[in-house]
Amino acid sequence: MYGIMAIIKCYIWSIALYGAETLTLRAVDQKHLESFEMWCWRRMEKISWTDHVRNEEVLLRVKEQRNILQKIRKRKANWIGHILSRNCLLQRAIEGKIKGDIEVTGRRGRKRRKLLDDLKERRGYSQLKEEALDRTMCRARFGRGFGPLIRQTTK
Q: Which H or E run contains 74?
């Protein structure tokens, strides 16, 4: 069973979450992603929808928790941290310092969510930016792939 779980997480989720770090997730999108996750676990356990098995019971059977949204948030934080650690055009566009849209006045409906709205709600954009600019914190948080690692030697 653990081999099938590894295959699902490796192949199925990687395809489903390709580019998810650049998406703005609405409530409907989050609901669809959670239902996709439960669909994967139900298919793995061969549970039909007519069996009326609750989601909590399915998660207990596979010994997992719902974590697809946490995975997306982690990927988004890693990607934003990577962008913020460099001084590039994409960083300025994400922060809104470069206007990339056509000004339309009197647009009806709710204001559209932007890319950084998720991070501002959950964790705080300024904290993430400070961590990305501090190279030692960045390496500790996001991994070693951000340049040479300076080791401290004890005497």
A: helix 68-84
Residue type, 19: G
Q: What is the pLDDT of residue 151?
A: 46
The model's pTM is 0.66
For CA atoms 72, 73, 78, 81, the dihedral sign is positive
Residues 6+ apart with CB under 8 A from 2: none
Residue 47 and residue 58 in contact, taking contact as beta carbons nearer than 8 Å: yes
**Tokens read off for 71:** 């995975």
- The alpha carbon of 80 is separated from its chain's Cα centroid by a whole number of angstroms, namely 10
Closest alpha carbon to 141 in 124, 129, 154, 153: 129
Give yes or no for a contact between 24 and 114, defined as CB atoms under 8 angstroms apart: yes
Determine the residue type at 41: W
Of 46, 55, 40, 48, residue with least CA distance to 6 = 40
